[in-house]
Amino acid sequence: MAADTRERLLEAAALEFNEHGFSGTDTNRIARRAGFAPQTFYRWFADKTAIFIAAYQVWEDAEREMLGTLLARKASTKRLVDAVVAHHRAHLIFRRSLRQLAVEDPLVRQARIDSRLRQLAQIKLWQQRPDADTGRLAVELLKMERLADALAEGEFADLGLSAVAVENALAEIIDALRNP
Fold first, then answer.
1. Which among 10, 51, 131, 169 is least buried, having the fewest CB atoms inside 10 angstroms?
2. How far apart are the C-alpha atoms of 52 and 65, rounded to whole Å?
């Protein structure tokens, strides 16, 4: 039951953050959406930032699992590009909050650093290259992340540009990470 309460709060928080952003929601709304009285929230999380970070970890785990499954199935690069962009698009408002909070809040910034370090370690594991150049991988990871967010946000369409060239660039990055 205890784990169920935490999971329900996390699910509700993820939905709230993705619908209303970090600043547009509060802990009472999260608790009510999960089906609990507001005071239940504070038995599990110190504050809204704590549950945001926990929701970010769930998002990261879902992305890693999705990519791991596709890589194990030897999915095409196109399928990987589509999946990464779809994952970012499905969490558009949450990702906006993440980008903003990573600049403004030291705890969220550290959570993002920790996430990226885990992602880099996972890429090395997928590549079976524990000695791979972390700096080069970080550059590729950040390019991939930014392009996926830009595609999810429709930034290229806003400029009157086709997404195809950007999807191709994202495919090149994924190929470079996939086949070093």
1. 131
2. 20
